[in-house]
Amino acid sequence: MRHHGVFLSSLITWLTILSVTRCQSICPDRCLCHLNQLPRTIECSNQGILTFPENISDVVENLDLSSNGISEITNEVNRLIDLQYLNMAKNQLKSLPNDINELRKLRKLDLSHNLIVNTADIASISQLPSLTVLYISRNLLPDLKGLTSEVLQAVDAGHCLIKELGNDSLNGLSALNTLSLTGNPLKSIRTPVSETLRWLDMSDCALNYLYPDTFIGFPELEELRLVNNPTLVYSTRYSTLEHIKLKRLDVSRCNLDRPGLHGLPSLTQARLSYNTIRLLPDRIFAKNRQLTHLYLNSNNLALLNASTFEGLTKLQILDLSANSLEEIHKLAFQDNIDLRLLNLSYNSLHRFPYLMSLVTTLDLSFNLINHFRANSLEDLSRIRSLYLKDNNLQSLPRSLNSRTLRILDVQRNRLVELHNDSFAELPSLQKVDLSGNRLTEAMNPNIFQNNLDLKIVRLDDNPWRCDCMQLYDTFVYLTEPPPKTVASTLICQSPANISGYSWETACFDEWNTNLYYPKDRTWGMVMISLLILVVLCGSVVSIKHTLKIKRRVLEQRRQMELTEERERLRRLQRRNQRIEEVEIEEFEAPEEIRINPLELVGPPSYEEAVQMRRLVHSMDALNEISIEDGTLRSINSMDNLRTKKRRTRRPRKRTQSEDDLLRREERRQERIRRERNNSSGNICDTDQLHNTNPRTSSARRARRHSIMDETLESSSSKDRPRPQTPTSKKRKRRHVLRNEHVTDDEDSDVQIMRSNRSIVIKELKREPKSGYRESYVERES
Ligand SMILES: *[C@@H]1O[C@H](CO)[C@@H](O)[C@H](O)[C@H]1NC(C)=O
Ligand SMILES: *[C@@H]1O[C@H](CO)[C@@H](O)[C@H](O)[C@H]1NC(C)=O
Ligand SMILES: *[C@@H]1O[C@H](CO)[C@@H](O)[C@H](O)[C@H]1NC(C)=O
Ligand SMILES: *[C@@H]1O[C@H](CO)[C@@H](O)[C@H](O)[C@H]1NC(C)=O
Ligand SMILES: *[C@@H]1O[C@H](CO)[C@@H](O)[C@H](O)[C@H]1NC(C)=O
Ligand SMILES: *[C@@H]1O[C@H](CO)[C@@H](O)[C@H](O)[C@H]1NC(C)=O
């Protein structure tokens, strides 16, 4: 079984190869054979072949032997039983073989451009049972009489010598539906008969007059072409061509002075172009209710009345171009409710016609329109495309108003500028063509701000004056993707040095240095100024704040100093009392205390110095309190002055009171001793110590207690940290010194009680031999 299968398949392949080689081997010289494709074709056109080729493969379906010199088709052709299309155009044939019975599949036979002089010589076509199309154009046939075929549907007999189409000419062609007789010297038609003919072309003939019943013998005729019969007239004042079924009529380039279509009630398309029609009487097309396409272009129409196109309710295309129209009645197209295209181009309109129409495309190109009012489109409620090419418009109206307009073509007018609002009320605008005008300055892109659907803006061929800064926004608007304009069509005309360059080229440098940056720069400026503003605000606020703080601190300090001074005064007063008591008690020398520093002759003793200082201080304090708000500086300077005075006086005092010195020294030693015992003592310790001191009296103790209370009382405020001022710094330094060495003081008990806060005395441990060391008493807070 398996062997059998293999054998069979190999046999089949072998046979196929054989058959193919057979076919190829018999492909005629100078021919191209495409026998492996459908339809199987052999092409031998224009090869100078003079005789019908022999031994052609009988599988051929299309055989092309056109443009050769073949004068005869031999019986050989009968071998080609599969032949469907035989092209023998442009040969020297005078006839067909008498017997072509075997070409049973031949459907199309082209014998055009041969030398056939009589239909009798090709009468054998009647033997072809499948022939539907016959080309016999450009032969020498004077008539179609004698041509017979029951199946032939289409005959092209153009450019023959046919002068007449008689009532029996088409008798033999019982299936004919398409006949072309173009280019024949056909003059008269005498009611030829064909029950089946539907399409007839007699263009480029010499037809002169057609009687109303000329085509009565063609009851099925639907399309009649009579183009370019320069003298043809078929309609007179009294009669006109008639046909019940005719749907399409083309009588362009004839001699019609009127449409004459009222005998053709089924007409849907009428081409009456290039005639001499001047007048369209009212209701002239009233009978042509089926008319959808009416071409009246290139006539001499001058006027359209209100009722010219009345009744044409199905009219879709009305071409009135290339006439002499100057005025069109406003209601001329009111009946044409299906109108899609109204072509009024190439007329003599001077103003935009005020029309009431449902037309969607209105072509007003090539007129002389220079008036175009804003409300022109008001009654064109469905207008989508408006062509106004090649008119004389110098400007577009402001607020041109249409909700439906998509295309506005105003190329090649005289537009010099565009109004802000020309396009503002055209919300559906998609394309606007402004090329070939006289626009020099780039429009502000804002003029298109309401045209959100705008996709194409043509601006080429305008004499742009290239102010690059001005052009930039427009250019960006037009070319940002998807581009509305091809950038290369924007050409500068002036200034002279960039004339002929595109905007892009001419402005490249400027746009890339001055224009891209300004944007960034302005942003940068904005940012920087914002920053500066923020910084300024911040610093103002902080300065205000610090000032406030400073003021408060200053106030505080003044307050403190004031209270301090008051405190000092109070203590001083108390101490003065105390001192008096103590002095009376201890030394019985009260006069010493009242020493006026100015009265001192020698250097003051320690006690004296203390007294002096305090006296001065107390005076200062008094002074200050009395001044209340007086400047501290003046007081300080007064203080300094006094200290200076004291310094100058001291040496003298020293020399004079040697005795006192000794005595005082003794007392000092004693005090130091006391101090030392008590140096780290607290209040309790001091209490103990003082208790041990035999000299302490009850009066003293009482005093001590009062002072203690006082100190405790004031310590809360005095413990607060204070801002560092030069004086406070000085005080700190002194504080350190104070801890270094012990001082003696007649007021040491006070000092002990107040611990670190009491009177500190800074003094040399030993007196220098000569000269003096400044000794002064400093009170801390
Ligand atoms: C055509 O075929 C016949 C017989 O097969 C042969 O005698 C003749 O020479 C062939 N003609 C050409 C032109 O090849
Ligand atoms: C055809 O026309 C001829 C005259 O031209 C006329 O005698 C003949 O009767 C017509 N035949 C028919 C069928 O109309
Ligand atoms: C157009 O109508 C006017 C009156 O409306 C009339 O006088 C004139 O003859 C008409 N023209 C045509 C060509 O019908
Ligand atoms: C109007 O007619 C002119 C010439 O007759 C033609 O060039 C133009 O294309 C037509 N317009 C339209 C929109 O078809
Ligand atoms: C365009 O509008 C602006 C203000 O919107 C106006 O200043 C300018 O003059 C207008 N230009 C034109 C040509 O109407
Ligand atoms: C053209 O000339 C103007 C001044 O007349 C100058 O500002 C501009 O840069 C020139 N442009 C070019 C491309 O040379």
TrEMBL record:
<keyword id="KW-0677">Repeat</keyword>
<keyword id="KW-0732">Signal</keyword>
<feature type="transmembrane region" description="Helical">
    <location>
        <begin position="523"/>
        <end position="543"/>
    </location>
</feature>
<keyword id="KW-0472">Membrane</keyword>
<feature type="compositionally biased region" description="Polar residues">
    <location>
        <begin position="678"/>
        <end position="694"/>
    </location>
</feature>
<feature type="region of interest" description="Disordered">
    <location>
        <begin position="636"/>
        <end position="749"/>
    </location>
</feature>
<keyword id="KW-0175">Coiled coil</keyword>
<protein>
    <submittedName>
        <fullName>Insulin-like growth factor-binding protein complex acid labile subunit</fullName>
    </submittedName>
</protein>
<keyword id="KW-0812">Transmembrane</keyword>
<keyword id="KW-0433">Leucine-rich repeat</keyword>
<feature type="signal peptide">
    <location>
        <begin position="1"/>
        <end position="23"/>
    </location>
</feature>
<dbReference type="InterPro" id="IPR003591">
    <property type="entry name" value="Leu-rich_rpt_typical-subtyp"/>
</dbReference>
<dbReference type="InterPro" id="IPR001611">
    <property type="entry name" value="Leu-rich_rpt"/>
</dbReference>
<keyword id="KW-1133">Transmembrane helix</keyword>
<feature type="compositionally biased region" description="Basic and acidic residues">
    <location>
        <begin position="655"/>
        <end position="677"/>
    </location>
</feature>
<dbReference type="InterPro" id="IPR050328">
    <property type="entry name" value="Dev_Immune_Receptor"/>
</dbReference>
<dbReference type="Pfam" id="PF13855">
    <property type="entry name" value="LRR_8"/>
</dbReference>
<feature type="compositionally biased region" description="Basic residues">
    <location>
        <begin position="643"/>
        <end position="654"/>
    </location>
</feature>
<dbReference type="InterPro" id="IPR032675">
    <property type="entry name" value="LRR_dom_sf"/>
</dbReference>
<feature type="coiled-coil region">
    <location>
        <begin position="555"/>
        <end position="582"/>
    </location>
</feature>
